[in-house]
Structure formats: C-alpha cells, structure tokens
Hints:
Blueprint: H1 3-10, H2 17-22, H3 29-37, H4 40-53, E1 60-64, H5 70-77, E2 81-85, H6 95-105, E3 110-113, E4 127-133, H7 142-152, E5 153-167, H8 170-179, H9 183-186, E6 192-193, H10 194-203, E7 206-212, H11 218-221, H12 226-245, H13 256-270, E8 283-290
Parallel strand pairs: 1-2, 1-4, 2-3, 4-5, 5-6
Antiparallel strand pairs: 5-8, 7-8
Amino acid sequence: MTWEEIIIQIRTDPAYKALVEFAYFEADLALNVNRFRASDEYKETLERINSHFGNRKGLRLADIGAGNGVAAVAFALDGFKVAAVEPDPSNTVGAGAIRKLKQEFNLAQLDVIEAWGEALPLEAGTFDVVYIRQAVHHAHELKKFIAEAARLLRKGGLLLTVRDHVIFDENDKNWFLESHPLHKFYGGENAFTEQEYDEAIKGAGLRILKKLRHFESVINYFPEKRSDIEAKLEKRKLFLEGLWAGKRLGPFRKSSALKRWYFRRAEAKLGPVFDERKIPGRMITYLAKKNA
C-alpha cells in the first residue's frame, strides 16, 4: 500500500480515529491547518523562532518533508515566505494537497516543490529558517539530508528538526517499529540514535543551540497538553505531601531541609513522573544555528 492509500483507509476505521485527528490526516485539509495553527505545538514553535530572530516579519522558511502542508500553510498565513518541499505528489498527503491549500487560502507567498530532502533544488544561503517536522528520521541518507538543509540556510539562520523519533539501540528500535500503529502497513518507519542526529547536525557546520527531549516541550509530547503534564506533576506533589504529613516528626516537621531530603528520597524510590524510556520511539527536537 502507498502512504496515501493507508491514510485514506484509516480515515474510515474507528480504531484510528484519534490518530487521524492528532496527526492532522483528516480529509478536510483546511480543518487540519486551522487545528495545527491553534495547537500548543505550533505556538511554541513560533515562540522559539521569535526568540531567535526577535521579529519574524518577512522571514524566508523552507519546510522540508512538508506532507499535506499543515505547517507550511500555517507559516505562510503568519507572514513567512515559504517553500514547501515534499516528494509525494498525492492530493491527500503530499504536494497536491499543499497546492489545494495554497489555492484555498490564496497564498502567493507559498511555493510548492516536489523533491527529496537529500537533493533540494533551492538556492544556497537564501533561507532564514529550515523547518523539518517528523521527516528527518525518514532520511535515506541522514548526513546528506541535514547537509542539504544546512546549505539552504543563510549565516545565522535557524534549523528546526521537530518531533523526530530517537532510539537508544537496535532492540529499542525494534520495540518502536513493532509498536508503531502504521508501520505494519507500509514498513516505512525509521529512527536514529541521538548520537547520529548530533553528528549529522554538527557535521553540516551547524551549532546545536537546544535539544528538547520528549517531556521537555509540548512540541514533542503532543497530543498530551501542558495541562496534562502539570496535572501529573501536581498529583505526584500531593502524594508526597500526604506521605510527609503521615510522618511523626514532632518539632522536626518544620525543617524545610529535612522535608526536601525526604522528598528526594521518596522520588528516588518512586521513580520519575515522566520516563521517556517507557515510550517507544520517543520524540526529540533540535534547534541549531548556522555559524555566522
């Protein structure tokens, strides 16, 4: 089955309803864009870009592996001049879908290019931002893919590789592939180790500014929300407070140092609230700068 055929099929299967919604695979392309644009993931992405440049007005952005165009169109609607690069020509999940959206939203500032990330027909040093959402882990040649992305950036430009699957070893990779809900249909999933991502980015002449691991940013832990994460932290805090309240400590109860020690000891026994090792193919996001 092709990727397009898989997406069309799962849209009508109730078992995949949540996946279709969370992955922005619904048949209504404009709805996907509007939902993505309103998401915490996109809002934080914009914040990261604004923080780097100060003012995003007129910035040129290349979206590599743009899929059905939800991010490319969102960026264009928010004032970026966008080149959406996608090798799949389909009208469902590829360049055809992006062209439909370009027409529907009347986006003169959006260009659509059918190409693979390892060979980009775009001029070097002409983009302020290269944005790659959930595509780097699909690279046929990781180092070449990142080198091409770096080539497009002007000096001081920003590379964002967003929501890529990261593995620890081959056993971990097998667990991820076996757990992936769609890999069984098309066999196209993949993942790299953090070291492999690091080496590709640094080898392309970029400086890593920030690595966001799975639970460090809503960019990665979506579809969980900030409120979900905060609720889990509050639940742990209340549990620890309850344990502390049950201790017979007399006058020592007022010791803040003793309370901190007790909490650390209890946390060590309970384990972390969030453990990315328990998530197959957990996400990682990189922000990297092209040296001036």
